[in-house]
Every structure is written in C-alpha cells, then in structure tokens.
Design brief:
Blueprint lengths: L1 E4 L8 E4 H4 L9 E4 L2 E5 L12 H5 L5 E4 L5 E3 L3 E2 L5 H14 L3 E3 L7 H13 L9 E6 L6 H15 L4 E6 L33 H13 L3 E7 L3 H10 L6 E5 L7 H9 L3 E5 L13 H5 L7 H10 L3 H10 L4 E2 L6 H8 L8 H8 L10 H4 L10
Parallel strand pairs: 7-8, 8-9, 9-10, 10-11, 11-12, 12-13, 13-14
Antiparallel strand pairs: 1-2, 3-4, 4-5, 5-6
Helix pairs in contact: 3-4, 4-5, 5-6, 10-11
C-alpha cells in the first residue's frame, strides 16, 4: 500500500510505502527505521517525472543514513572504488557525486586514491558538494599494521585524497604483514617481494587497533572500523577496544549471507556494510572456477522474477535485499544511468516472502579469500 505525501520543504510529492510511514518520526520528516538501523532521509524530494533524465532525476533523491556508534551518520548507499581504473577514476568519482552519491569507499590497495581525490576536488570546485557533505572511507592495508606505520600511511592516503580527515577508516584485513616502505612499492600488495613471498609481521590486532584509536584522537579519522573480520576476532576486540569498531565491512550476497555474523554485529551495535553485493560478477575476471560455475545473480530466476514483480532491475533487488535488512551497500559502475539505478534501492520495500526467497539461496560460497588470487598456504583469512 502506498500513500502520497507532500514534504514541507519544497511541496513536491513522492510515493512512500505505507510500511515506511508507520515509522515516520514527528520530529524528522520523514524519518524511517530500517531493520535495526536508524535511517534518515536527509536530501530534498523530487517528483520522479519532473526531469527527463533518469540520472538527473535521482541526483536529488533523498539519501538514507545510518547512525554509527561513534555518533556520526553514514550514508546507507555508497559508491565502491575497488577495480576502478586509474585513467577513468577521477571522472567516475565526479559522476558518482553528481549522481547523488555521498559515501565513497576507497582503500590503499585499490591504487587509485589520487584519482579519487581529483574527482572529489572537481565536484567541490564546481559547487556540487562541500567536503562536509561527503563521507569518505579508506582502509589500512596489512603491510602497515605495525603501530608506528599506521599514522604515517594514513597521512599519505589523506594527501592522495587531498583531504584532512577520513570519515571512516577500516582495518582492511586481520593479520599483519611485514612492512614495505611506500618508496619501494605502493600499494604493496600481499607479497613482501612483490612476487610470491608472504612474510607476516608479529604485530597483534590489539596493537594495531590502539594505533587506529590514535587516529580518532588525532582527528585524522572520525570513525574507525574493521573489514573481513570473523566472530571470535570481533569478540576479542570488544574486550580491549577503547573505541569499539563502528562498522564491519564483509562480503555479503545471496550466495554468502553470513547470518550469524550479522546477528553478532547487530547485538554489538556494529553497522555492517556489504561488499560484492552482486556475488560472482565481481570475480569473473580473476578466472575463479567457482564464480564461473554459478548462475550470475543478475540472471537468476528468483532474482529476475522478483525484479519483474516490482518493476525494478535485478541489481536494485539485490541491493534492496541488503538495505531493507539494515545493511549498507557500496555498489559501483562506470555507467551514469546504472549509478542512478543503484542509488535508487531504498525507496521501495520487498515483501517478506521475497526477502526470504533470496536469503534461502545462501550456499556459503566465498569469493574474496586471498588464497583464491594466488597459490599460498601462508595467508588464510577465512579458515
């Protein structure tokens, strides 16, 4: 059931699911609670038919945010920057911001942070956004997990982006590697020699986390979090953390739901961000046999039938399956039209039976295991 409402800010109408209105706050119009996350519409409304372009139509769609334990609001739908080519990255970031994205998810290991910064600088220079409108995320590569290396590499990354602080900074993977000086090779990758040698550091996660907390103290990062961590590491971290992780970023798609880990995060007040929301699609170029053997989620009969039911694209259904269950998502694309489609993944609700059908596809199939990229017995993140 849908009801047409008129926001007082500009008088333009937008259809909101009635189930959403049930959670509307009298203080914030409208404010919705999405699963366990508090989600606030913080951008002006625009009626869907008032502009001819799909991309421009949704560039002013309201962007839901999730409140972190650190007290900051994080956009629920962001733009991922993994595998965005250097030669097109600046334009891609600029176009993403222009399309309405406010969260940009980067990392040292992606090797494109300078170009990301160029795209941000262009958007700010043209008055599309101010720095404070953006939520910029980056990550600490395991090579820099030694406590004395954390702040220096963060300052380098901030310099590459051309900004003074990260809104969120994550430990990219658990497990420290031997330090490689950026003047020797940057980003350093997994191998100490740049070829095949994996050399682990003796630094503990606790030592690294203390240095991460120091980033908040030094105002180099507003919030800190973790990525690719499993349950026992999180439980252990919560025993010693002065500043608990605000977010957990994990591989999450219908082939790998990780429901127990999601339950843990919810119980501990940790917001989960899903990466690789489209499953094997992100990994086909690496010639992973198990990725090629699976039906692409965009062509899966269940996903496509649900998409037809709601008049949406399969990508929107996959993203809504995550966001409706309280997760943040970080899809990426180089196509402006698809940027807009992906961003428009919170303005409709899936029926519970459809959510359950998608969740039932869970097969425990993981793609982002380091040993899938190269042969090694020295670096098992997920045992």
């Amino acid at each position: 059931m849908y009801k047409s409402i008129v926001p007082p800010a500009n008088g333009l109408r937008r259809c909101i699911p009635f189930s959403t209105l049930l959670h509307t706050s009298s203080r914030t119009f409208p404010s919705v609670v999405n699963a366990s996350a508090r989600t606030t519409w913080n951008r002006p409304f625009r009626y869907p038919n008032c502009t001819p372009s799909y991309a421009s139509r949704y560039s002013t769609m309201p962007t839901p945010t999730i409140k972190l334990s650190s007290g900051y609001e994080m956009p629920q739908v962001g733009f991922g920057l993994w595998k965005v080519a250097n030669e097109t990255c600046a334009d891609t970031v600029y176009n993403a911001i222009k399309a309405g994205y406010r969260l940009l998810d980067g990392a040292c290991d992606y090797g494109n942070e300078k170009e990301c910064g160029e795209g941000v600088a262009k958007a700010i220079k043209e008055g599309i956004v101010k720095r404070e409108d953006l939520f910029i995320v980056s990550k600490l590569w395991p090579t820099f997990n030694d406590p004395e290396q954390v702040a220096p590499v963060v300052k380098k990354q901030l310099g590459d982006w051309g900004i003074e602080y990260f809104d969120l900074y994550l430990m990219h993977f658990p497990g420290a590697l031997k330090y490689v000086d950026p003047s020797v090779r940057y980003p350093p990758g997994w191998h100490y020699d740049g070829k095949s040698e994996i050399v682990r550091s003796k630094t503990t996660i606790q030592d690294t986390w203390r240095a991460m907390e120091g980033l908040v103290d030094a105002k180099l990062a507003k919030s800190i979090g973790i990525s690719n961590f499993q349950a026992q590491l999180i439980y252990d971290m919560l025993r010693y953390a002065r500043i608990p992780p605000a977010t957990l970023q994990i591989e999450h798609h219908p082939y790998l739901v990780q429901q127990e880990l999601l339950n843990l995060a919810k119980n501990e007040g940790i917001v989960v961000t899903a990466y690789s929301s489209f499953g094997p699609a992100s990994f086909l170029e690496f010639d992973f046999k198990h990725a090629k053997a699976l039906v692409p989620l965009m062509k899966d009969d269940i996903i496509t039938s649900i998409a037809a039911k709601y008049g949406k694209q399969p990508s929107q259904i996959l993203l809504r399956w995550a966001t409706q269950r309280g997760l943040a998502v970080i899809p990426k694309t180089s196509r402006v039209e698809v940027m807009a489609q992906n961003l428009d993944c919170t303005g409709f609700d899936l029926e519970k039976e459809d959510l359950d059908k998608i969740t039932a596809k869970d097969s425990g199939i993981r793609f982002n295991q380091p040993s899938n990229y190269f042969k090694t017995d020295m670096m098992w993140i997920f045992g």
